[in-house]
Hints:
The chain is α+β, with helices and mostly antiparallel strands.
Amino acid sequence: MRPARLVAALASAALLVPLLAGAAAPGAKAPPPTLELSSTVLVPGSSVAIHGTHWPEGTTLQAVLCGANAVDGSVDCVGRAAVTMTPGPTQVVDGTLQVFVPPRPCPCVVLVSGLSSSISRRIPVQVAGTATAPPETASPLAKPPTLTVDAEVSGGTTLASLFGGPAERTVEVRIHNAGSVDVAHPVLTLSWGRSGSPDHLIRTPRLGPIAGGATRTVEVPFDLDALSVGNYEVAGRITGASKPVALHASTSTWPWGLFVIALVLLQLILLGIRNRVRRRLARKQVEARIAAAQAAASADALGTDPPDAGELPTQEVPVVRGGALDDPARNDEPRARPPEPICWRAPATSDRATVPLLRWVSPEPDVGESTP
């Protein structure tokens, strides 16, 4: 191989390598999700920003500040200051966490967990002015609070939702504390959406303390978006006890009014198309009949057989006027005069008293004709 060709082949290969690497990039493994705080030294009364990337769309995260390294779960956390975040199409999450003194001494962490998944992240932080002690679990003699949750969605069809408007719904949550320890700061988080991705947050009220053995019922109203169709899921979580408790419910909405309007419009469109086709066919039939009548009249005037209706002549047909064809070659031929009616005239007389006798008078001959 010549040196020039060898150099050209090597240059082409060098150009193809980056292209092939770029083509293989889409099949590479996606980077793991990340979370970071704007500062790891927190001051009570202030706030800290939370930023994350590469989170799948539809994920719902909750961040809360906890003491004692959150060894006992949410009982070590400031539940009333929890913040909920969802990523957008860019897979980026952003939130702002209010800083309060946690109920247990530090070491402190910002606990980030998924509402409908097993995601859990701990970010170590320092809280200014907070005591520090080795993390210890609660006394084994005290039965830890155990919450059980039951949820149900109610709401029917309204006139607005029948024609695609927002559908009003109410989720009823029944919370029971089966333990002997009060839950001081339970936090209820709810969201709705398609099954598997409830990404529409629902504003929830503060629950207040739940005593041991007590049951609390909370009704939370919310609206499904306009033009919502089909089945939807309501998911949530109760935190504040030793372990978070998840809840799930379902609802649906069907705007039958829009379906009826769509069927009526489709029927009107089909009727319009049918009527237009009928008018076009009728116009063609009338034109064919007129053409056939003109052809028959022309054939009668010429003394020939009329042409087939399916093969009408396209040449211009002479117009019959006065019983003869309007043809210059026949203008010199004498034309037959139609017979005139018999006229009866009274002879002129000066005697008005005498009744005149009627006599027959022949019509005047045409010019150029000889009289007998």
